[in-house]
Amino acid sequence: MVDFVADYHRDIESFPVRSQVKPGYLRPLLPDSAPAEPETVEDVFADLWSKILPGITHWQSPKFFGYYPCNVSTAGMLGEMLCGGLNVNGFSWITSPAATELETIVLDWLGKLLHLPEEFLSTSGKGGGVIQGTASEAVLVVMLAARKRALKQVSSAAQGMSEAEALSKLVVYSSDQTHSCVIKACQVASIATENFRPLPTDASTNFALSPAVVRKAIAADVEAGLIPFFLCGTLGTTSSAAVDPLEELGDIAKEYGMWYHIDAAYAGNACICPEFRHYLNGVEKADSYNMNPHKWLLTNFDCSTLWMKDSEFLLAALSNKPVFLRNEATDNNLVVDYKDWQIPLGRRFRALKLWMVMRLYGTSGLQSFIRSHVSSAKHFESLVRADSRFEVMAPMTFSLVCFRLRTLPGSQDTSNSLNSKLVDALNRKGNILVTHTELSGIYTVRFAVGATHTELQHVQAAWEVIQAEANHLLNGKQ
Ligand code: PLP
């Protein structure tokens, strides 16, 4: 299996980046039921090559520029192997003390690398970090904590208001660029979806939230008797890597007693480099902060890190103590039981891979990884700018370039349909993979540099592929 994975990574550039299969391709290739008798691993391998690999989109290809990256590394894989090999279920400290304690320690390490305020570290006594599976889970658990806090505040301030009535009045604020995980958290946390405010952004603020817009929306809601309780700022939005004004948002949240969360799933990773750390200014005003090392910090999926200043309301929202889990360390409050910081009970020993990555790369290795992608993305941006048939659609701050092809005068195509044809053609041919978004209603191509194996040469080659496709679309030339 190790050889298979090694060969896969060696040969990865020979596969079309996006899987070329059609929906339902696998069912006719596999038996209807599981085998009655054991099969051999050789049989499974044969199917792996012939039936499974064609249905893989190669996220680890250096020619993968879609979505945001999903990093891999030898260190991360070793961590995964250890995690699978030991296969502990570390939901409470007692179920594997090392799993809990290592997680606390590596989250402090990473928190220090990011220069998070002391309150976010476990050494503060009240706060600390935890590994979630995804940013969506991180946002959900902090929203549940915020809801608990808000309902407590309301019940002490407005006597007589039922919890159900208070819940129906709670309002969540973020920008229209915020990841859909925030509305999903509202859905799960029973926050009325009409009380979710995805506030408008546009090119004039580079698609970042405007504090004036936030204030206006909050004032109108307060006037209407609603209760602002959760504000989510984003460092590196999904569509264009915009950065919300984190400091000003922190002031607004404080003024209205709201929980302030910062989602930095992708771009937060860059903040381990001193030259990017200033984007995180304002985190000192936040209640909680999350980022995904599994996106862009060499840690195999899944590893989404979340820190908060005070775990009190998280525990109030999620902790319970069934008799079958009781033990002396828990009963005497001597330990953290991470089951109380997440939705499921069971949890993998994910800290091993972050520990491996941080040790085997060192801070310097991690920083040069980020810097090499940022400089390749800058190169790509300069190539786009140098070709007048294209335009850059948003500032390039980290390693995401948003661009589009301009339509030729007199062309039948609208810009949106031309660019959608461009993306479809690129992905269908499979030489590279890019994805798209809309910025102010304009179809925009996203080119995210960040796959572990991507180097400058891949970015240069990708640009040549894009230019050739543009020639073809605009002039019928290949
Ligand atoms: N937040 C941001 C800013 C993202 O870009 C993404 C995914 O790209 C997410 C949250 C969701 O991440 P996850 O898949 O870890 O839930």
Automatic annotation (TrEMBL):
Family recorded in the similarity comment: Belongs to the group II decarboxylase family.
Pfam family, one: Pyridoxal_deC
Keyword Lyase recorded: yes
UniProt keyword list: Decarboxylase, Lyase, Pyridoxal phosphate
Cofactor(s) the protein needs: pyridoxal 5'-phosphate
Annotated TM spans: none
InterPro entries assigned to the protein according to its UniProt record, in alphabetical order: Aromatic_deC, PyrdxlP-dep_de-COase, PyrdxlP-dep_Trfase, PyrdxlP-dep_Trfase_major, PyrdxlP-dep_Trfase_small, Pyridoxal-P_BS
Keyword check for Iron: no
UniProt superkingdom: Eukaryota
PROSITE patterns per UniProt: DDC_GAD_HDC_YDC (PS00392)
The protein, known as: Tyrosine decarboxylase
Entry-linked Gene3D superfamilies: Aspartate Aminotransferase, domain 1, dopa decarboxylase, N-terminal domain, Type I PLP-dependent aspartate aminotransferase-like (Major domain)
UniProt organism field: Sphagnum jensenii
